[in-house]
Specification:
elongated; mainly beta; 33% strand; 6-stranded antiparallel sheet
C-alpha cells in the first residue's frame, strides 16, 4: 500500500493550513474513509471554527468518536518504527542522505514502511540528531537502506558504533487507544474507519468523543482506564490531556469536547 508523504518528507509544496470546506487538491471529505490515498499522511486541514484534522492510515477498525493512538512500538514490531538499537548502522559521512540500518526487527520490513518517519541518533557517534526519512528499501538480510530528506543530510558522521532508533509518523497505522498500552493519543475518528483505510483524524477544536463516566462542563478529560477509545475525568497528573468537556457526559455515549491534541 502506498504511503505518500509528498516531496520533502511530508511537505506537499502548499501552505500547511487549508481553510474552509474544501482544500487544495484534497478531494476526500472529512466524514469519508477511503482505501485510496487522497492526501499525504500527516496533511492538515483546518476550518474557521478552529477544528483541525490530520490525514491518517488506520491499522484496525475504529468507531466514530473513538480516540486514536499510533500503533504500539515494540522490540519485535518494526512496522511502527524501531526501538533504540545498539551498533546497528553502517558508517555515513557528513552530508550523506542514505543510511543503512541492520537489525533483526527489520527482517520483514517492506519498502517505504518508514517514509515520513524520523531516524534518531540515540547514542555514540553523531548522537542527538533527528533526520526525516522519505523512503526505504525492503529488508535484505535484515539490512534496510533509509533515504533521508535532502534538506536534512547527516550533520555529524555516523559510525558502526552509532545507536539509532526510528520513530514513526503519528498518522501512520493508528488504532483505537487503549489505556496502559497506548501512551500517546493523536486524534479522534470523526467517522467509522476500517483496517487499512485512510481518513481525516480530528486533532483540535470542538468535537465529540466516546465517554466513560460522567464528566461535567470544564472537566479535563484523559484516555479512559477501562474503555477502549473513550475519555474519562483526569485522575492522574501523568495522563495525557485529550481535551476539556463542553457538557455533562453519560458513560457509553458521546460527549462534547474541546480537543487539545493538535501539533
Amino acid at each position: 500500500m502506498p504511503k505518500n508523504y509528498g516531496p520533502g518528507g511530508g511537505f506537499d509544496g502548499n501552505p500547511v493550513r487549508y481553510f474552509g470546506s474544501s482544500s487544495r487538491g484534497y478531494a476526500q471529505n472529512i466524514l469519508d474513509s477511503s482505501t485510496v490515498q487522497n492526501a499525504p499522511l500527516g496533511a492538515m486541514r483546518e476550518f474557521l471554527d478552529g477544528s483541525q484534522f490530520r490525514y491518517a492510515l488506520a491499522a484496525g477498525a475504529i468507531s466514530a468518536g473513538q480516540v486514536c493512538a499510533t500503533d504500539v512500538l515494540t522490540a519485535s514490531n518494526a512496522g511502527p518504527g524501531l526501538v533504540p538499537t545498539d551498533n546497528s548502522c553502517t558508517a555515513a559521512a557528513v552530508g550523506a542522505t542514505q543510511v543503512i540500518v541492520t537489525a533483526g526487527a527489520l527482517a520483514s520490513v517492506a519498502a517505504d514502511t518508514f517514509a515520513g518517519a524520523k531516524l534518531i541518533t540515540e547514542d555514540d557517534a553523531g548522537e542527538g540528531y533527528a533526520y526525516p526519512i522519505i523512503s526505504n528499501t525492503a529488508a535484505d538480510s535484515n539490512a534496510v537502506t533509509l533515504s533521508l530528506d535532502p534538506a536534512f543530510p547527516i550533520k555529524v558522521a555516523l559510525t558502526t558504533a552509532t545507536d539509532v532508533a526510528i520513530i514513526q509518523n503519528p498518522c501512520f497505522e493508528v488504532v483505537p487507544a487503549t489505556a496502559a498500552t497506548d501512551c500517546i493519543c493523536v486524534g479522534v475518528a470523526p467517522t467509522a474507519v476500517s483496517d487499512n483505510e485512510y481518513f481525516w483524524m480530528q486533532t483540535k477544536g470542538n468535537s465529540n468523543v466516546l465517554c466513560d463516566g460522567t464528566p461535567t462542563f470544564g472537566d479535563n478529560l484523559t484516555l479512559s482506564d477501562g474503555e477502549t477509545g473513550a475519555v474519562q475525568l483526569k485522575d492522574a497528573e501523568t495522563e495525557q490531556l485529550v481535551g476539556t468537556a463542553l457538557q455533562t457526559g453519560a458513560s457509553g455515549a458521546q460527549v462534547g469536547i474541546r480537543l487539545n491534541l493538535g501539533w
